[in-house]
TrEMBL record:
It comes from Poseidonocella pacifica. The keyword tRNA-binding does not apply. Keywords: Cell membrane, Membrane, Transmembrane, Transmembrane helix. Its main location: membrane. GO terms for cellular component: plasma membrane. PANTHER family: INNER MEMBRANE PROTEIN (PTHR30287:SF1), MEMBRANE COMPONENT OF PREDICTED ABC SUPERFAMILY METABOLITE UPTAKE TRANSPORTER (PTHR30287). This is Putative ABC transport system permease protein. It is found in: Cell membrane. Residues 267-379, 723-827 form the ABC3 transporter permease C-terminal domain. Signal peptide: none annotated.
């Protein structure tokens, strides 16, 4: 019976309009919309990758080999299972041209192809040409294609010539679109495409040089990809082949999108929790304005359950409206802006109504609304009718009944569990949610501390009316102080953490690394070229250090006789091929943490020195055996030592090193790092690449710029997410200011009666807002710095320093936001007539 009555009462009250719930709806709508939009974009990209997986990969399946071409047996197997086969080689080189101002050089990522390329999709060329014509040999010079950026950098136009190694090519067209580019992964240089047959005289694909071959298979429509993968690996178990297929045509992009999307959903969830504070404040303010109605219902015989259900149904209906509006925005905005988004994406995306991210956002919205509305609603049960008539909603118990506390706790656990399940990163989710709850607790304690400080310092402001009334209001107004500190503080905490992380990453890349990093990496140096290479550098006073080492690439296939992934899981060391080196004597910079180095003349069974930190992460111990596939040959060695390897300096570091006798007979080249003064970099590059055309030089500065560019896009995305969280906090702040207008009107009336001027009252309001904003900003700064330090230390494993410009901006931003919000709602209290206000309160 009470449910029917409550429903009727709730429906009648809703006829009064939504004016009291504008902030409530805005907070809920914005939070749900942010999560729905991020989820929709992520799903659109994932579906695009799935739909275009074969085109992105360049075939239905791909077999990849390191440092070698497929053997005759391997090619026979591929030709037997595929309808068409295409061979692609991929490596880095220096593109060289003789311009009017001298010789120009630029790093390029070279793709050499056969006549069957591309199996799927089409190349976009300017001028438009068939690829066979573009790569054909004319007058003894083969054709080549270049990305626009590389051609512009070298000052080339179609018809000009350039060199790769010792081979001259003619630029026949500009490469506008490459169908399989997104599946190629990260590259340090723009693309050049040539025919593999044209590289025979270039000296670039010799034994031991760093290149990869990829064999794309166009399979029959009914091909079983799982069965073919198992057959390939079983037929060639020790070949070191890597299998990819159209189900995941661009795995690097897919992983990046998944992780960035998960992170942004967590940022959006932070915004939703900030909005939840606003929802709670709006419900509390609404119920405070309904004290007379509730009191009347209680005196007419309405029981506690009926009162609770009346407002629960009313607020529940409004919550569903806010969630629906958020879902409409979150689903509609990506579709509306899809042309703009697609232009900035390197991969295809399918923008449509995707149910799953909308259901996920709706679940988050429902749980958040329940968690933050149950508490203030439940407190109405403990308020007596007489107290309600005295307009004292806050006179009840601080905590609601135990059943409501248990319900809120279960809902919070369900929210955390849903976030962990949907994000794909449970550990990151738990840390994020833990950080949010810790920040909420810190902010609540900060609000209580701010009230106590205000109460104690109020006695020191005698004779200063504005200061005294401002501090008195902060000390006595628990609801307003807590609401402002929580809403603004949590939003600023998220923004502060992201600002500090972003600043530290930029500092690490743009300032710290160049001071310690080499000027160049040189790769593909032949053994007989090393004396001449060192001779050029050893006599240069501008060169401070040169490090060199033999370089091979290998795939760790087994550990202690078991498949490597069974032992090490998905650790990055076993996910692909890794750099492998050898040394007779222990290098001067090698510091062993356990075990012993082999003797210089050791010729026994292969021994391995492994990176200590990675060994600990993989669970390795001294005496373990490890099998490494190098150039199709499997070498099993015993781990006899662990050593420190610091990859953060961008210098030379190998996870795995073996004794010289184990590898010296394998075809290989050398790599070198050169540390030189900036003014000496250009002459070094010119001299070495002229003397040794096959050598590839990688500028560390250019690599840093490329990484900075990628990080810039990530930082922009995270800043947008943090800005949405802050916007929600500002909306909550405005709601808190609006909800406090009634109290300020009465306060202003009392002050006017006691002789205070309008200027004094306005200054009091401004001081109150500024103190609360500064307090929220300072607490947010501490919480944000702590969160950023944890991310940099435990996740990024990098050094951390406070970025003070960002820190000061957070505090000033908090102060400015609260001051403006307070002044925005100062006019009604200043304009109120004391007599009318005081008579209404009698």
């Amino acid at each position: 019976m009470s449910f029917a009555i409550a429903g009727r009462l709730a429906r009648r009250e809703l006829r009064g309009g939504l004016r009291s719930f504008r902030i409530f709806l805005a907070c809920l709508t914005l939070g749900v919309a942010a999560i729905a939009a991020v989820g929709s974009v992520r799903t659109a990209i994932e579906e695009g990758l799935a739909r275009e997986g074969a085109a992105l990969l360049g075939g239905d399946a791909e077999l990849e080999f390191t440092y070698r071409f497929a053997t005759a047996a391997e090619r026979d197997w591929m030709e037997a299972v595929a309808e068409r086969l295409s061979e692609v080689a991929d490596f880095r080189s220096m593109a060289v041209t003789d311009g009017p101002s001298g010789t120009e050089r630029a790093l390029t990522q070279v793709k050499s192809v056969d006549d069957a390329y591309p199996l799927l999709g089409t190349l976009g060329l300017d001028p438009p040409l068939p690829i066979t014509e573009a790569l054909a040999t004319t007058d003894g010079i083969p054709g080549g294609l270049m990305a626009p950026l590389l051609a512009d950098r070298l000052g080339l136009v179609p018809g000009d010539t350039f060199r790769l190694g010792t081979q001259t090519f003619r630029l026949s067209a500009i490469l506008v679109r490459e169908p399989d580019d997104a599946g190629a992964g990260f590259s340090l240089g723009p693309r050049t495409i040539v025919a593999t047959s044209a590289l025979d005289a270039s000296g670039l694909l010799g034994p031991g040089t760093l290149f990869e071959t990829k064999y794309r298979l166009d399979l029959p429509p009914d091909a079983d990809l799982d069965a073919l993968e198992r057959e390939a690996k079983a037929t060639f178990p020790d070949s070191g082949l890597r299998w990819r297929d159209s189900r995941n045509g661009a795995p690097g992009v897919a992983r990046f999108v998944e992780r960035l999307g998960s992170f942004l959903v967590l940022v959006g969830l932070s915004g939703l929790i900030v909005g939840g504070v606003g929802v709670s404040s709006a419900v509390r303010a609404f119920l405070a304005g309904k004290t007379g109605v509730i009191a009347t219902l209680r005196t007419l015989g309405a029981d506690r359950r009926t009162i609770f259900l009346t407002y629960f149904l009313q607020i529940g209906a409004l919550s569903l409206l806010g969630i629906a509006l958020g879902l409409i925005l979150g689903a509609g905005l990506p579709i509306a802006f899809s042309p703009l988004i697609e232009d900035r994406l390197p991969v295809p995306a399918v923008f449509a109504l995707h149910p799953r991210p909308l259901m996920e956002a709706a679940l988050y919205g429902v749980l958040t609304a329940l968690i933050f509305t149950l508490w203030p609603l439940a407190r109405t049960e403990d308020i007596r009718a007489a107290a309600l008539f005295r307009d004292s909603l806050g006179a009840g118990k601080l905590l609601p009944a135990r059943r409501y506390l248990v319900t809120v706790a279960l809902l919070a656990a369900l929210l955390v569990g849903a976030a962990a399940a949907f994000s794909g990163s449970p550990l990151l989710t738990l840390w994020t949610v833990g950080g949010l709850f810790a920040a909420l607790l810190i902010l609540v304690l900060a609000a209580l501390g701010l009230r106590r400080v205000a109460a104690r310092t109020k006695v020191l402001t005698r004779g200063r009316t504005a200061w005294r009334t401002a501090l008195g209001a902060i000390a006595g107004s628990g609801e307003e102080t807590t609401s402002v500190v929580l809403s603004l503080g949590l939003g600023l905490s998220v923004l502060a953490a992201i600002g500090q992380i972003d600043g530290n990453l930029q500092t690490a890349i743009s300032q710290d690394l160049p001071e310690r990093a080499p000027s160049y990496f040189f790769v593909d140096i032949q053994r007989d070229q090393m004396p001449g290479f060192r001779e050029r550098l050893d006599g240069d006073a501008a060169v401070s250090k040169v490090e060199s080492a033999p370089m091979l690439r290998g795939v760790i296939t087994r550990i202690n006789g078991r498949p490597a992934r069974e032992v090490a899981g998905d650790h990055w060391v076993v996910r692909g091929d890794r750099g492998v080196t050898y040394s007779a004597a222990k290098p001067d910079n090698a510091r062993l943490t356990a075990g012993a180095w082999w003797p210089e003349d050791y010729t026994g069974d292969p021994q391995i020195s492994f990176a200590a930190e990675e060994a600990e992460e993989m669970g390795l111990s001294l005496g373990d055996t490890m099998t490494v596939s190098i150039l199709g040959r499997e070498i099993t060695g015993t781990i006899t030592s662990f050593r420190e390897v610091d990859f953060s300096t961008a210098g030379m570091g190998f996870v795995l090193s073996m004794n010289e006798a184990a590898l010296v007979g394998a075809p290989h080249t050398f790599i070198a790092t050169v540390y030189a003064d900036p003014e000496a970099e250009a002459p070094i590059l010119r001299d070495l690449t002229t003397a040794f055309p096959n050598i590839t030089a990688i500028s560390v500065r250019d690599a840093i710029d490329r990484v900075t560019e990628v990080l810039g896009g990530i930082s922009a995305a995270t800043r947008y997410g943090a800005a949405a969280t802050l916007l929600t906090g500002v909306l909550v702040l405005i709601g808190a200011a609006a909800a406090g207008v009634r109290a300020r009107v009465y306060e202003a009336a009392v002050l006017k009666t006691l002789g205070a001027s309008r200027a004094t009252i306005l200054l009091s309001f401004a001081l109150r807002s500024a103190i609360l904003g500064a307090g929220a900003g300072l607490v947010a700064l501490v919480a944000g710095i702590a969160g950023a330090w944890a991310v940099m230390h435990f996740v990024m494993e990098a050094s951390f320093a406070v970025i003070w410009p960002n820190a000061v901006a957070i505090v000033l931003g908090g102060l400015l936001c609260t001051t403006l919000a307070g002044l925005l709602f100062a006019l009604p209290p200043l304009a109120a007539r004391p007599a009318r206000v005081l008579r209404a309160r009698e």
